[in-house]
Amino acid sequence: MSQRFKGTQAADMPSGNPFSIFKRRYDHLPQNQQTNWWVVAGVALLLLLLLFILWLYLYLKTLEKPYLELKGYRVATNASLNQFLRERGNRREFGQLTDFLQKAGVADATAPENLLRQGSDWLDINEPPFAIPPRDYWPNMIATLKLIRDELEPTIGPVDVVSAFRTDGYNRKAGGSGKSKHKTFCGLDLVPRSNISRKELIEELRNLHARLGPDSHMGLGIYSGVRFHVDTCGFRRW
């Protein structure tokens, strides 16, 4: 084979460089199609960039907000709860608490994990959002959960727990009373899930408290907004 033939054959063969192949194909496109291609490519890259920025924003937001809001009050996320349960023997103790509530017939009053919430201001006072009450206090919660399930929710509708058991340290930093029923796992701070007004809520709660009377040992406290306290360790109201 002559050198001339070999040179011609080599020139006709496509280069192994993918970019070179792409460039030759692109150069053969009409000018208007070349312009349209660059527009499409630019829009696609812009969309990918926007999606990446949105993903990064949402990711950073989850890092800076380790809580959910219930009627304006902050409760720790499930991710924070799972982290708490992985510590020491917390998962085993929580399982025992859940079994206790089920045997007492009150595990359906609220999800047992809600009873681990210390409060809604843990970020402000630099305290853990969750705590497991000592076993000796567990019976104190039975009557309170029955009252919520059988009397309170039929009156005002479903409620969410924003504060249950509190350690001495948490209660002190949060400005709670030294005699707080949260410390003995008898009291709960709650918010209604419905859009009931504060005025209507107060009226319904006071009527319920009066109707149940001293026999219920119901303690009722009404705070700002639609947050209120319920316990069954002393008939009183504030």
Explained architecture:
There is one protein chain. The protein has 238 residues and is α+β, with helices and mostly antiparallel strands. Helix content is 50%, strand content 12%. It has nine helices and seven strands, in the order H-H-H-E-E-H-H-H-H-E-H-E-H-E-E-E. It has helices spanning 3-12, 18-27, 31-64, 78-85, 90-103, 122-125, 140-156, 168-173, 198-212, and strands at residues 67-70, 73-76, 159-163, 188-192, 219-222, 228-231, 236-237. The protein has a five-stranded mixed β-sheet with strand order 3-4-6-5-7. The protein has a two-stranded antiparallel sheet with strand order 1-2. Strand 1 (67-70) and strand 2 (73-76) form a beta hairpin. Helix 7 crosses helix 9 (198-212). The longest helix has 34 residues, at 31-64. Residues 4-13 have low confidence and may be disordered.
Record keyword descriptors for this entry.
7 strands, alpha+beta, 9 helices, 50% helix, 238 residues
